[in-house]
Amino acid sequence: MDAVPAIRVVDLRKSFGALEVLRGVSFDVPRGSVVSMIGASGSGKSTLLRCINRLETPSAGEVYIDGEPMGGRLSDISRMRRDLGMVFQQFNLWPHMTVIGNVIEAPIRVRGMRRKEALALAEECLARVHLSEKGKEYPARLSGGQMQRVAIARALAMQPKAMLFDEPTSSLDPELTDEVLTVMRELASDGTTMIVVTHEMAFAREASDRVLFLHNGQIEEEGLPDQVFGAPRSERCRQFLSKKLQ
Amino acid sequence: MSNWERLVWNQRGLLWQGLTVTVEICLLAFALAIVGGLVLCLVRLHVRPLRPVAVALIEFFRATPIFVQLMWVNYVWPELFGWPNSFFTSGWVALGLQSSGYLAETFRAGIEAVPRGHREAGYSVGMSSFQVYRRIVLPETLLTVAPSIVNQFTVIVKSSTLVSVITVPDLMLQAMKLVNVWYEPIEVLTATAIIYIALVFLVSSAGKALADFHRRRFGLDSA
Questions:
Q1: Which pLDDT belongs to residue B125?
Q2: Which residues neighbour A93 within 8 Å (Cβ) at sequence distance 6 or greater?
Q3: A89 exposed, middle or buried (CB, 10 Å; 0-12, 13-18, 19+)?
Q4: ipTM of predicted complex
Q5: Residue B211 C-alpha, separation from nearest chain A C-alpha, in angstroms
Q6: Would the CB atoms of A110 and B129 count as touching at under 8 Å?
Q7: Could you tell me which of B124, B144, B122, B147 has the C-alpha nearest to residue B134?
Q8: Which burial class, exposed, middle or buried, applies to B174 when counting CB atoms under 10 A from its CB (0-12, 13-18, 19+)?
Q9: Where are the domains of chain A?
Q10: Which of B116, B125, B134 to mutate to test the interface with A (most CBs of A within 10 A)?
Q11: What pLDDT score does B113 carry?
């Protein structure tokens, strides 16, 4: 097994004023593995994800991407962010660009790819999210599920070392979550390194290699999915799961 | 021969001349307002040391009556700066400056209305702050505020009638000339009002059409 994990988080802490949101979180994400983060709202899951790609600046602790410490100058952070695809709860597609425009923007502007290559790449990425036919549409014309899949394609187009999903299905109607989860399952089985913050317990159980349960800014329980879901050691995790799985 | 024919139709050349001057002045003022408004807004938001200057200018342009500004640009600027050197220039500069104050605030509202997540999506694919601004924030802002910008043009059209007081030969001035020759105001002034209504209607319909289009295509509501 590979010695250097794709993502290593060491004793990460984050406070907003007096509020301590993360109180020392450490974990590894080996290359090609899927880590799901579950926990109640306010447990710090999203903040943790946002600290990994520096949309939030951690108060203390380190994040390593492929062994390289995340941080330093803004330009270094931007360079390292290329390798971390982020998918947001609110999709955050750019409304003034077509679907294709959204996908090729970063490869062209950030990676300096030629337009023709970028278009070919975009087609590939859109095929992976099953939206090949929507390239010329503007985001406003898509359903929530389609928007989120475009957002996934946009992140994939940067050919990142890892994908970060921040509650990707939480603002979708139940009938639209499946199409997004299907795409994510496919990515997972293709060997994409993923961290997934989610409330979809079935997905966390079936698709991930490891599950982290966060409580009050700390990892309260951690293990293989069957272990966390089947026989949680922590009382809080048991309570959380029994509420979720009712 | 009816008065309409004698006073309006037969004078159409003069009125047309006036109308072209009005349109020219409005277009120049509009261009100045957009450029000036954008500059004022960006300075206000992003150039910390010059922020008070930008705020003061915006407030000054918005708070002074257009008539005062016209006089000020026309009589004070040449003394202070040796410019403008024609009434025509004074006219569009004063009109443009006033609208630039309003547009600066419109732009600011538009920029602040760009959801934070849209910027974060840019940062998270590795774009620099400048790229995020140029490729995401500004285009999105321009689309949301475009209808409001067009509507500001109607304000310019209406205010432009005041340039006649500094003897710019616009539509209003030509109309008043005709009135003062025959002392028969009814037809000439009614016709003038109708021309302005038509102009303003044309522009505001364009603004509305643009807003509808942007809502349909981009899902953007105007700021």
A1: 95
A2: A102, A139, A147, A150, A151, A154, B121
A3: middle
A4: 0.93
A5: 14
A6: no
A7: B122
A8: buried
A9: 93-159
A10: B125
A11: 92
- In order of their start, the domains of chain B are 3-218 (1.10.3720.10)
Comparison of pLDDT for A29 and B9, the residue scoring more: A29
pLDDT digits (tens, 9 = 90+) for A108-131: 999 999 999 999 999 999 999 999
Residue with tokens 């029994």: A242
B84 DSSP 8-state letter: -
Residue among A55, A139, A154 minimizing CB distance to B123: A55
Instruction: For residue B131, list chain A residues with Cβ-Cβ distance below 8 A.
Output: 109-110
Task: Name the E strands within chain A.
Answer: 7-16, 19-29, 34-38, 60-65, 68-69, 84-87, 162-166, 194-197, 210-215, 218-223
Residues of chain B with pLDDT under 70: 1, 223
B121·A151 Cβ contact <8 A: yes
pLDDT at A211: 95
- Best residue in A56, A78, A81 to probe B by mutation, most B CBs within 10 Å? A78
pLDDT in tens, A63-79: 999 999 998 899 999 99
- Token look-up 């998918």 returns A87
The minimal CB distance from A79 to the residues B120, B126, B216 is found for: B126
- CA A97 to chain B, closest CA, distance in angstroms equals 8
